[in-house]
């Protein structure tokens, strides 16, 4: 059940949390709820929460993400199991990945509060304001104009509405621009200001150097390509020994898998070997989830919702057949995001899973009998030395190899077979999808080739 | 509650300059207006304060830039070649032309390798796009595009399709629509999305099936000439370079410009990521190639020589990242030692400008495209 759906249900006039009118300073605020009532409701509703503590965590998440906000101690984003007063946040301010809380908007908000009454900003807000004033200075007239417009518009509202709107907006910014030394539940996004201290520079340059050293022997311009570089000798053994589904890979190829999880997964032959290891450990769901997330990210816009649904049912729903074990916060965020799926909705979960594999599973794989086995079996082709005359001859018998379209079709067929064998997927749908794709390719080939 | 300002993006004619482009909705006096991002910035920054003039602002800008460089300099006096001091010097490289691909009737402007390591696609000024098997020298397919100057072409990851674009402002059967020429295009990790760069100053991400604009990237103040996708495990960023001498790094998800580098003194013709994804190189009309480290957030090497005075149009790294191949307007390809900063080799053979160099996916060969109507494969 997504956070949004839960919050909507909590506001149901019949079965939801009971609210009442409360006096805040001089004004009366409608539909105020207490923390105790919220927790009781959640505990009754979610039968899966056998302990009060879990309901507490869920309720605090609702506050941390900004779905519910406290109206007195507005910076304390936790749910208290007592008479502390809260309100439901307006859906307009719900957290969504569709747009990030921009600095320009924050500047407008702080300016507006300054216009209202100078000296109202707290110390951390004043610091933000000064900083924004400096680096958004070129836009400052625009920002002041927008702030003035908004201020004028709110003056025309009824006082009660104005107080409510102020609370809502303030709550939104506490979540999106948290005060110093408080933790925000929301992702901070990519770091834009990188502080280049000398140590870091040295570190990062050493990494570049290290990369070269690691890959030196795999660079055909620096070390001989075994058995021979096809472009030099006109003999393509090097490519036939390194095909996608070769039974026994070469030693160089197997070595490259050990350089990073990224290399292992990018080489599909390596990924196959990794899957053999995962099967033995009964922990294939992480990789399967990662692959499904990749497919979502790089898929067609029209396939988003159906893929998202399949992924939810297979990996994320409680009791799902291939349920992935990620932390509650990421799970909550992901499940909520899947209500309005877009290609980056699984980003947090995917990164989490990738890191798990990278820091733990990958190293166990490298020490495993599966990997040691393939290392032993791997081929070390002898260098082929051709005379110039032989090189000429080789040129005459150059084969065109297998066309990439055929290779891709084979890959699709293998994937369909593997999917049918391992998970409860609708095979019929997949096969008919493949048929449609094949038809598309054949049409394409007719018009192009 | 909707008097809060927020930014959304749609596509259409800008209400200020009239040009069709990705638009932002702004509210002024409760009225929604649609401006393209250039016009939004212009409007937001309008008006000089009293006592200011364009000249005085320029001077202030220059002095701030100098201060920034000074501060950066204080913190970072470590150069790449110092850190690479202990690395052994490169031996002599024996790189020669191994194949010459003849068949285009005019300047070859772009090429791209297929993931199968032997096929490639090339595009030319005569409007022809040819798919070759570089190994057997056979032409597998030829497409005529109804425009001259096909500046960009890309091979799809599955090998089942190619994309191209140029002076007709479109990329392949109108998947992508720009308001000026398409200078570069690349597929992402699948056949379903294309990333394009354009003379209209923007980059854009498109869904191939529907032609829908998925994300647009604004920030360059002049033509964008080149782009490259990051090879890292996250695969969410790309770098672009343009006529504003800037190289920008973008987050594909949000459209934000994460980092920006401005150290070239002339147009940047080409940008390419280092194989690890932690750095990138650029080639410019100022006859230098530069190397930038993303984590250190600065330029860490400049590849230049007194004898190299013609602009560099294209760069690519060898598989290990040790070598940087750069094509120049003086018909040569210089091979630079990335770590030591010295030139390791020069490749002669083309009879006109080199427009594009690309290392094959398994690193076994280099392909170069030239205005002399041919492509060469070197190894």
Automatic annotation (TrEMBL), chain A:
The keyword Kinase belongs to this UniProt entry's keyword annotation: no
Record protein name field: Regulator of G protein signaling 9a
InterPro entries reported in the protein's UniProt record: DEP_dom, GGL_sf, RGS, RGS6/7/9/11, RGS6/7/9/11_DHEX_sf, RGS_DHEX, RGS_sf, RGS_subdomain_2
Pfam family, one: RGS
GO biological-process terms attached to the record: G protein-coupled receptor signaling pathway; intracellular signal transduction; negative regulation of signal transduction; regulation of G protein-coupled receptor signaling pathway
Record's GO cellular component terms: cytoplasm; neuron projection; plasma membrane
Keywords from the UniProt entry: Signal transduction inhibitor
Domain RGS: 260-375
Residue ranges of domain DEP in the record: 13-90
One GO MF term attached to the UniProt entry: GTPase activator activity
Domain of life (superkingdom): Eukaryota
Coiled-coil ranges (or none): none
Automatic annotation (TrEMBL), chain B:
WD repeats: 101-133, 175-216, 217-260, 261-302, 314-346, 347-379
Listed InterPro entries: G-protein_beta_1-5 (IPR016346), WD40/YVTN_repeat-like_dom_sf (IPR015943), WD40_G-protein_beta-like (IPR001632), WD40_PAC1 (IPR020472), WD40_repeat_CS (IPR019775), WD40_repeat_dom_sf (IPR036322), WD40_rpt (IPR001680)
CDD domains listed in its UniProt record: WD40
Keywords on record: Coiled coil, Repeat, Transducer, WD repeat
Gene Ontology process terms (BP): signal transduction
PROSITE patterns the record matches: WD_REPEATS_1, WD_REPEATS_2, WD_REPEATS_REGION
Ranges in a coiled coil: 54-81
Family membership noted in the UniProt record: Belongs to the WD repeat G protein beta family.
Protein's recorded name: Guanine nucleotide binding protein (G protein), beta 5b
């Amino acid at each position: 059940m997504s956070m949004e759906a839960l919050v909507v249900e909590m506001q149901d006039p019949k079965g939801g949390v009971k609210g009442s009118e409360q006096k805040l300073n001089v004004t009366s605020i409608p539909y105020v709820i207490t923390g105790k009532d919220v927790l009781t409701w959640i505990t009754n509703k979610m039968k899966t929460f056998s302990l009060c503590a879990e309901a507490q965590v869920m309720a605090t998440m609702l506050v941390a993400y900004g779905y519910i906000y406290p109206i007195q101690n507005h910076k304390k984003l936790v749910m208290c199991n007592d008479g502390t007063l809260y309100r439901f946040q307006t859906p307009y301010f719900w957290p969504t990945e569709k747009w990030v809380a921009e600095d320009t908007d924050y500047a407008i908000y702080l300016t507006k509060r300054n216009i209202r009454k100078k000296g109202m900003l707290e110390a951390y807000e004043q610091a933000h304001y000064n900083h924004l004033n400096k680096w958004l200075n070129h836009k400052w007239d625009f920002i002041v104009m927008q702030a003035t417009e908004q201020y004028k518009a709110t003056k025309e509202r009824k006082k009660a509405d104005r107080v409510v709107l102020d609370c809502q907006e303030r709550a939104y910014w506490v979540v999106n621009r948290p005060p110093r030394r408080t933790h925000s539940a929301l992702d901070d996004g990519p770091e834009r200001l990188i502080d280049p201290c000398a140590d870091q520079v040295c570190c990062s340059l050493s990494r570049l150097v290290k990369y070269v050293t690691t890959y030196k022997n795999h660079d055909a311009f620096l070390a001989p390509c075994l058995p021979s570089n096809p472009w030099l000798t006109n003999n393509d053994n090097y490519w036939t020994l390194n095909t996608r589904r070769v039974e026994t890979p070469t030693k160089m190829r197997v070595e490259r898998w050990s350089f990073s999880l990224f290399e292992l997964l990018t080489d599909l032959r390596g990924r196959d070997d990794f899957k053999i290891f995962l099967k033995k450990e009964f922990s294939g769901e992480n990789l399967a989830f990662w692959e499904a997330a990749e497919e979502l990210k790089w898929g067609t816009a029209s396939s988003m919702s159906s893929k998202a649904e399949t992924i939810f049912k297979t990996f994320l729903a409680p009791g799902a057949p291939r349920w992935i074990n990620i932390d509650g916060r990421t799970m909550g965020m992901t499940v909520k995001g899947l209500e309005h799926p877009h290609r980056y909705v699984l980003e947090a979960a995917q990164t989490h899973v990738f890191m798990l594999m990278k820091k733990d599973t990958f190293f166990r794989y490298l020490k495993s009998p599966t990997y040691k086995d393939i290392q032993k079996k791997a081929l070390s082709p002898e260098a082929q030395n051709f005379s110039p005359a032989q090189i000429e001859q080789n040129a005459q018998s150059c084969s065109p190899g297998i066309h990439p379209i055929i290779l891709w079709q084979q890959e699709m067929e293998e994937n369909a077979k593997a999917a049918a064998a391992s998970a409860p997927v609708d095979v019929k749908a997949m096969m008919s999808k493949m048929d449609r794709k094949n038809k598309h390719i054949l049409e394409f080939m007719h018009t192009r080739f | 509650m909707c008097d809060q300002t927020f930014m959304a993006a749609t596509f259409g004619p800008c209400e200020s300059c009239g040009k069709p482009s990705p638009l932002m909705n702004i509210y002024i006096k409760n009225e929604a207006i649609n401006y393209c991002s250039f016009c939004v910035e212009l409007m937001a920054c309008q008006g000089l304060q009293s006592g200011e003039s364009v000249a005085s602002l320029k001077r202030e800008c220059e002095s701030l830039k100098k201060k920034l460089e000074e501060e950066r300099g204080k913190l970072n006096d470590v150069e790449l070649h110092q850190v690479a001091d202990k690395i052994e010097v490169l031996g002599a490289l024996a790189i020669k032309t191994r194949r010459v691909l003849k068949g285009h009737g005019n300047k070859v402007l772009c090429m791209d390798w297929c993931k199968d390591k032997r096929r490639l696609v090339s595009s030319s000024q005569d409007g022809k796009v040819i798919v070759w098997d570089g190994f057997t020298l056979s032409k597998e397919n030829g497409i005529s595009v109804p425009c001259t100057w096909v500046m960009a072409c890309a091979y799809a990851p599955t090998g089942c399709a190619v994309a191209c674009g140029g002076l007709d402002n479109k990329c392949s059967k109108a998947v992508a629509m720009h308001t000026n020429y398409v200078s570069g295009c690349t597929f992402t990790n699948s056949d379903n999305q294309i990333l394009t760069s354009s003379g209209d100053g923007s980059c854009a991400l498109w869904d191939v099936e529907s032609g829908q604009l998925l994300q647009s990237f604004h920030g360059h103040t002049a033509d964008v000439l080149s782009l490259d996708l990051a090879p890292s495990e996250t695969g969410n960023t790309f770098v672009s370079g343009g006529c504003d001498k800037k190289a920008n790094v973008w987050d594909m998800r949000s459209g934000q410009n994460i980092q920006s580098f401005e150290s070239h003194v002339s147009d940047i013709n080409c940008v390419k990521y280092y194989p690890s994804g932690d750095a990138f190189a650029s080639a410019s009309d100022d006859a230098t190639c530069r190397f930038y480290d993303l984590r250190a957030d600065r330029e860490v090497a400049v590849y230049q020589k007194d004898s190299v005075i013609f602009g560099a149009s294209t760069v690519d790294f060898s598989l290990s990242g040790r070598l940087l191949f750069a094509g120049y307007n003086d018909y040569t390809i210089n091979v630079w030692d990335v770590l030591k900063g010295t030139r390791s080799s020069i490749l002669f053979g083309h009879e006109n400008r080199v427009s594009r160099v690309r290392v094959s996916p398994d690193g076994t060969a280099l392909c170069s495209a030239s205005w002399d109507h041919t492509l060469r494969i070197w190894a």
